[in-house]
Amino acid sequence: MELVDFLKEKHVDFQLCAHRPAFTSQQMAAEEHTPGVNVAKPVIVQADGKYYMCVLSACCKVDLDKLRNQLDAGEVQLVSEKEMAKLFPDCELGAEPPFGNFFGMTTLMDENLGKDGYILFQSGKHDQAVRLKLTDYEKMVHPRIMKFSYHLH
Length: 153
Known about the structure:
This protein is α+β, with helices and mostly antiparallel strands. About 25% of the residues lie in helices and about 30% in strands. It has a 5-stranded mixed beta sheet. Strands 1-8-7 form a 3-stranded antiparallel beta sheet. It has a two-stranded antiparallel ribbon with strand order 4-10.
């Protein structure tokens, strides 16, 4: 099932936005004229052999040490593009939507995401984004809210 179908099935109010292909979350923020703090960027990590989807603002990066401490894990590392392709076979590489539960993994959400009450994210394609209320996202995904990012300068 595609993400858009899933959102319709859940009767969630969302907006589908078409834009020129964007290959980074910051490019998508620019294409959609949206502050990077409201663009949800999924980053997949493996902690002690388990996959987690970390969802954070486009203008931030994952602090792996902070994340390791909060997960009480021995080792935390970013997954390779090859692993990403296996984990998200129906998505264009780098355009994964931030729904870890949709892909069988725990979602960790950074507390700084969506300060304006909404998020925007890739739909699985580089030329299509979804805008959604943050509260609706949280109801569907049930992310663990943590502080694991730092702002890019």
